[in-house]
Amino acid sequence: MLTYIARKFLAMIPTLIGVSILVFVIFNVVGDDPVYLYLGKNATVEDVEIMRHSMGLDKPLWTQYLISMKELVTFNLGYSMSSKEKITDMFLNGAGPSIALTLPALFLYSGISIVLGLICAYWRGTWVDKMIAVLATVGMSISYVAVMIFAQYFLAFMPVEKWGVEIFPITGYENGFPDFIPYILLPNLITTFVALGYNTRFFRSIAVEEMNRDYIRTARAYGADTRTILFKHVLKNIMIPIIARVVVTLPFMITGSFLLEQFFVVPGLGYKLLHAIESADFKVVRTFTMLIAFLVVVTNSVADILNSMVDPRVKLS
Amino acid sequence: MTAAAPAKFVEPRYGESLFRKSARKFRRDRLGMASLSIVGVYAVIALCVKIGLFATLDAATTPVGRQHVAPGQTYQHILADKSVEERTSWFGTDIRGNDVGLKLIYSIKQAFAIGILVAFFSVLIGVVLGAISGYFGGKTDDFLLWVYTSMSSVPYILWIIAISYAFGKGFTGVVIALSSTFWVGIYFNIRAEVQRLKEMEFVLASESFGMGKMHIIFRDIMPNLTHLISIFLSLNFIAAIKNEVILSFLGLGIAGEPSWGAMISSARLDLLAGKWWEVTGATILLFILVMAFNLFTDSLQDAFDPKKVG
Asked: Mutating which of B1, B139, B158 best tests the A interface, going by the most A Cβ atoms within 10 A?
């Protein structure tokens, strides 16, 4: 097991290098000159030269790449160009709100959609099954942005406007343990709503597929009732695709937290990154992209390891 | 479609291709046909806008009257010769006094332009790279697989943001950003399928005839991938128009021209002031198109699936 874990982490290295090269190429080679973007149109030649030198952009590309790698590996990421904050601090402060905005929803919608998927498999072909399948497709077709806008209007804005009751705060965020809870409720609700359609469809199809397998017929022949089959056999066997699915949706959650943070003005990673894009803060954008990517790569490897613990068929050698 | 009642068994005919049988299966699928016709209506409107029959860019971005006229209300319409005429606005006007109905219709063309271009380019890249990777194997495969793993390890929204940051805002930026991120999933599927197909006898036969590698990939293997390709085209079309809305909301969308994304994100503050028509109109039109396309894709998948009897 330990060698397997070690191998998994070693296998991350080429991927991480690949990610860093891609990010570097996009920002340093393909992208517009960050110096011009940052200084604007009225910069003098000297300003540009000084800026270029201070950012290290006058060095050859491979030196620049190695320098940026060295900064990442030593976690010495420098300072933001616009707010002069330490980038490490910005990242660590932003991670909390981002996680609070989406992680509870991950558990909520995974739970609900697994239950709905099993319900569909149990009542296969009846109106319950069809209704859930149709509703899932409907849920899948609504735009994320529209869900946010209307949820904020009907659940947070209108109650205050019409009846003077505050159900959810309209926007904002507060740090500290009990204070942040009201602010994360509506965003988590929205994430759950948006993700429910996709996940219910997915879990339904794998549950239904599992119900058609031969061993289920054998179990039925032995006289096992549907409930026993569903919870004792099907749920155990679909655990592997469920874990894989949850991992696949992790990047999707980051998308969600980008939109939600921007919309509800929550100072998470996405909000800070978008803010950096607006102020052409090249260094923050590149570093944040890289760090988030690294986090995802690490999470994926951890998920693979988890999967190997659940699935006895995964070869460890 | 998962929810549809199982249709009647479609008897295979002698010498019938998979594609023809699927087309016959599809025509029997009522939900599939209904959704295809909705998509068709949208496509015809998009085409008419494209060739300039109605709702031209000019018409959609010229103020017709005062701002924020509610749907069904009358307003003073300004004619070309500056004279004024009383008119009823069916879809209301936006903050600049532009007609929301015209903007909505113009946006259909935008959605199709983005959807078709992104679907085409992303599927093209994914299929070509996937076929090369799957067929040749070895170092080429290792390299492409490494690019794939690196790209898919990063949340695609980050790529999209990074790429549109690099290529600038606007239509081209959106198309490049979406196409260069959406090919990854297709690549992996096509690669696996080609790896399976290249072991088959018909490829061996072609090789023993001395056919070139390109001939084998594109003339022998590729026809066996048409069903996958058409499903990917359809899925990426949906993904493209949905992500246009997200990009617009993040300030990276098409600038200057109306699109559903631009309408939804720019009019969201109007909603708080009770001006609901612009956001609602764009949301509903987008929803109907995406819903119809989702149902169509489901039916397409069922029609191509030889295991499904229906």
From this structure: B158
